[in-house]
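Predict the holo structure. Ligand: nicotinamide-adenine-dinucleotide.
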Amino acid sequence: MGRIKTAIAGFGFMGHTHGETVKSFPEMELTAVCDTDTAQLKDTPAGVSAFTTLDEMLKKADFNVVIISTPNPNHEEAVIKCAKAGKHIICEKPAALTVEQFDRMVNVCKENNVIFTVHQQRRFDKDFCIMKEVYSQRLLGAPYIIKSQLYGVNGNMHDWHVFPEMGGGMLYDWGVHLIDQILYMVDSKIVSLYADVRNIINEKVDDYFKILLKFTNGVLAEIELGTYYLTPKRAWFIGGDKGSAYIDGFAGEGKIVRTAHLLENVPGKITMSAAGPTRSFGPPEPGLLQYEDLPQVKVNHRNYFENFIKVLNGSGELLVKAEQVRRVLLLMDAVRKSGKTGEAVRFE
Ligand SMILES: NC(=O)c1ccc[n+]([C@@H]2O[C@H](COP(=O)([O-])OP(=O)(O)OC[C@H]3O[C@@H](n4cnc5c(N)ncnc54)[C@H](O)[C@@H]3O)[C@@H](O)[C@H]2O)c1
């Protein structure tokens, strides 16, 4: 089987990243790129054709896979054009701005019998994969809470991310990854959600949100992101009836914590704390808390492309499926609704 001839539409930040990824896979060959901004095409690799429009690239270049990394509002048009031309597609996230747009894209891909998937490569983030192992192996007994937190210091959105009509704001940017991770981890329907969505320092687009998802299996998931927290953090916490687990940082540093004996057996000793005398929230007695290593995982973002190549070669299942992407987009609508009304929204 020959190498997979691949093109990139939108050769900006992610387009260049995808160019490097494609070059690093012996199974793939980058044959063409296109970008409406000629400045982006200046460093087109030797032997790769460069075009200023997708139409021209579709007409003249030789490829059967396209990676679409144009800004968000262009994804629908680009996917539909590429599908009609019979190209298999990896589209950047958020795949679409609305569920309606997304349905149109999926239908055209089905009609033209092309593979369509979305670049949700954060399913292979190390921190997330460790917590997914903790969750799915039930290492903490029955989990009741999952927290996923991402706090930043660079409050202002950059480039087109400041414009609502461009699909700007953090819900469309990192929100789509953080929600996708939780829905991929928790194998249950959602009963309801509550969300607080704000613009703290950005005038027109969201830069802070907290989302609470109540699942039918009893798990409550809390996703919180702020670009203007000024205390940078990427953290996870899962609490279960047999212990808890935490991670601090993308590298996945953390522990599983258990108690040597349950609370009803702990002598009801009163200890003094800065907040006064307390029994429940005093310091742990020596030996009460036991720390275990988190499971090890070997993952990286290349795994996303390995899955795509397998599917293209006729074996294996797509990791990021259209129905999963659609569920995230539907949920984001509900998040916005709750954010506007201040009320919980029933879901599924
Ligand atoms: N999966 C991830 O982790 C991740 C990370 C960053 C960005 N993204 C996504 O990738 C996409 C691109 O983001 P970016 O940060 O690379 O933006 P960018 O602005 O750096 O690049 C987009 C490029 O598309 C070009 N472009 C615009 N309209 C075009 C058109 N009609 N035809 C061809 N080219 C066109 C622009 O000139 C620009 O060079 C967005 O959807 C974004 O959400 C995903």
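The longest strand covers residues 143-151. Helices lie at 13-24, 54-60, 75-84, 99-111, 126-136, 170-185, 302-312, 322-341.
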